[in-house]
Design a protein that fits this description.
This protein is an all-alpha fold and about 280 residues long. About 70% of the residues lie in helices and about 0% in strands. The protein is built from 16 helices and no strands. Helix 1 packs parallel to helix 3 and helix 14 runs antiparallel to helix 15. It is globular and about 50 Å long.
C-alpha cells in the first residue's frame, strides 16, 4: 500500500479541498478517502481529456473491468489496488462505483440538460454515489448518514459546476440547463464566445442561488452522532459556502476567471469543521 506521503501528495495535492477536509481522520481512513477522490477525478476527467468519443468510451469500459476485478482482489490500477482493502473492510457495494462510472458514460452522450431537475439527477448519480462510498469508508453504515452524504455530494458538484462554468465553456461545454438560458434570454453561442452581459450575470447568479439552496438542504440532512466521519463532509460544505460568497463578492464574474479559496482559508474552515462535527 502507498505511504501516507504518497496519498497526500499524489492522491490529493496540498492546497486541494480534499487534502484539508481529511486532515483530521486516522491515516488509514484518510488514505482511502484520498484514493477514492483521486479515482473519481481520473474517471470524470476522461470525457474532457479525450477528443475521440470512442477512445473515451473504451477508457471507461476499461475502468468497468477494473472494478469488476476488484471483486476478486486483483485490479491492475494502483488507485484500485490501494482502495480494494478499504472497500472490502467497509463492505462497500461495488455497484456504487459502477453507477458513478455510468454517470460519466452518460456525459459522453449527453452534455446538455433541459432542466434543473435532470441536471440534479445526473449529479446525484455520479458525485452523489461517490460521496456515499466515502461515507462508508469513513465508517458510517447508517442509511440516514449515507443519504446525507449522497445529497451533499450532489450539492457540492452543483457548486463546482457554477465555479467552473468559464473553464467548461472554453472546452465547448455548457452544463447549465436549456431552460435556465431561455429564462434569462442568454444564447448558447453567447456563452461559448465568452460574451459577458447583465443577462449572463443574472443567469450565473440564479445558478449560484440554486446551488446554495441545494447545499443548505443537504446540510440539514446530516444526522446527529456521525462523529469523526462527518468532519470531511462538514469541511467540504463550509468551503462550498465560502466559495459561493466569493462568487457573490465578484458579482459572478466567472466567464474569464476561476474563483477558488486560498489554502490557508481551506485549512481554517477544516479546523472549524472538526468543532462543528463533534
Amino acid at each position: 500500500m502507498p505511504s501516507e506521503n504518497l496519498s497526500t501528495t499524489g492522491f490529493a495535492p496540498r492546497g486541494t479541498s480534499w487534502y484539508y477536509a481529511t486532515l483530521q481522520l486516522p491515516p488509514a481512513q484518510r488514505q482511502a478517502l484520498l484514493a477514492l477522490q483521486a479515482w473519481w477525478r481520473a474517471v470524470r476527467s476522461i470525457p474532457h481529456s479525450v477528443t475521440d468519443a470512442g477512445v473515451a468510451a473504451a477508457k471507461l469500459a476499461w475502468w468497468d473491468v477494473q472494478i469488476g476485478q476488484s471483486r476478486d482482489g486483483r485490479p491492475d490500477h494502483p488507485l484500485l489496488l490501494t482502495l480494494q482493502p478499504a472497500l472490502n473492510a467497509a463492505d462497500v457495494p461495488l455497484e456504487l462505483l459502477l453507477q458513478a462510472l455510468a454517470q460519466v458514460d452518460e456525459g459522453l452522450r449527453q452534455n446538455r440538460w433541459l432542466d434543473w431537475q435532470g441536471l440534479q439527477r445526473h449529479l446525484g448519480d455520479g458525485p452523489g454515489h461517490v460521496a456515499r462510498v466515502a461515507c462508508l469508508l469513513a465508517g458510517q453504515k447508517n442509511i440516514a448518514a449515507l443519504d446525507y452524504a449522497q445529497a451533499l455530494g450532489a450539492a457540492l458538484a452543483q457548486v463546482s459546476l457554477v465555479r467552473d462554468v468559464g473553464r467548461d465553456l472554453r472546452r465547448g461545454l455548457i452544463f447549465l440547463p436549456v431552460e435556465a438560458l431561455a429564462e434569462h434570454e442568454v444564447k448558447a453561442r453567447q456563452l461559448l464566445d465568452g460574451t459577458d452581459s447583465p443577462q449572463v450575470r443574472a443567469l450565473l447568479r440564479d445558478a449560484a442561488t440554486r446551488a446554495l439552496a441545494t447545499l443548505v438542504a443537504a446540510d440539514a440532512r446530516r444526522p446527529i452522532g456521525m462523529g469523526l466521519a462527518a468532519r470531511p463532509a462538514v469541511a467540504l460544505s463550509k468551503m462550498a459556502h465560502a466559495l459561493l460568497r466569493e462568487m457573490e463578492r465578484e458579482n459572478y464574474d466567472l466567464l474569464g476567471q476561476r474563483i477558488d479559496l486560498p489554502p490557508t482559508r481551506k485549512l481554517w474552515l477544516a479546523w472549524r469543521a472538526q468543532r462543528a462535527a463533534r
